[in-house]
Design brief:
Layout: E1 2-6, E2 27-28, E3 31-32, H1 33-43, E4 49-53, H2 58-66, E5 71-74, H3 86-96, E6 104-108, E7 111-113, H4 117-125, E8 133-139, E9 150-154, E10 160-165, E11 174-182, H5 187-195, H6 203-211, E12 216-221, E13 225-227, H7 231-244
Parallel strand pairs: 1-4, 1-6, 4-5, 8-12
Antiparallel strand pairs: 2-3, 6-11, 7-13, 8-11, 9-10, 9-11
Length: about 260
């Protein structure tokens, strides 16, 4: 299995911080937030890690990745107007990184979590491995936030039977997090989906399409999940990690 970090977005809600620094490279708890995800990937026993980003941040990611032996893919876009979208970036990296014959763990590089990726992989493997795909799902503590995410319904054996992207009236508070495992047998379907001109973003669009055709399972996890999208979420995550690692908390975020 190979791992891919998604970092192709432009994080407009975090400007001016992200005018020169990619969101996943912003410090959380004294380290770039992507470092914490890389630690989890390494702990799961995955050796080869890729990251896909855009032309604005590619040089910064290359510097960050050099000592970590992480492979950086520049999708050559430079704004929200020409971005490939999440599914487009996933396929771009898979094709350019020579991963078309691999199972691929995909993680958005602005999501922090506490669950074991090894347990997640074992869950997926027990349900079909390369002939199946999986998403990590989380029960929100605050149900009012469900409309911001893809709301998931699970059936027998944790199989995903529906995913509704950002519904106005959510049916539950069980949501998809940006952590996916795509079995190698499903990768040609991703290529076909994009070649058919179907929506490359948000990634839930592809997931909804895939679950109607192939086995897709939802790995439920408890505990911490931090989706870092705006300044309040960034400061909250930073202080949580700072306190955990012996650093003083602060009232205002700074680099």
């Amino acid at each position: 299995m190979k791992a891919l970090l998604l970092a192709g977005g432009y994080a407009m809600r975090l400007r001016p911080l992200t005018e020169t620094v990619a969101k996943p490279l912003l410090p959380v708890g004294g380290r770039p937030m992507a470092d914490w995800i890389v630690d989890s990937i390494r702990e799961a026993g995955i050796e080869e890690i890729h990251v896909v980003t855009n032309a604005v941040y590619a040089a910064s990611f290359s510097t960050w990745a050099e000592e970590k032996a992480i492979i950086v893919h520049n999708d050559l876009t430079s704004s929200n107007d020409d971005r490939l979208g999440a599914t487009g970036d996933i396929w771009f990296a898979i094709e350019n990184g020579g991963m078309t014959d691999d199972d691929v763990l995909v993680i958005a590089a602005d999501n922090l979590f506490a669950f074991s990726l090894r347990d997640y992989i074992d869950f997926w493997s027990a349900r079909g491995g390369s002939g199946a795909s999986a998403i990590a799902v989380h029960q929100l503590e605050d149900p009012s936030l469900a409309s911001l995410y893809g709301v998931v319904e699970l059936g027998e054996g944790e199989r995903v039977v529906s995913l509704e992207e950002k519904p106005e009236h959510p049916k539950s508070s069980l949501v998809s997090t940006a952590t996916y495992i795509f079995g190698r047998d499903h990768l040609p379907l991703m290529k076909g989906y994009l070649e058919a001109g179907l929506p490359p973003d948000p990634p839930g669009k592809f997931i909804s399409w895939l679950l109607e055709r192939e086995p897709l399972f939802g790995y439920g996890f408890a505990g911490e999940w931090l989706d870092i999208g705006d300044p309040v979420q960034l400061l909250t995550a930073d202080n949580l990690y700072r306190a955990r690692h012996g650093l003083p908390v602060r009232d205002q975020y700074s680099l």
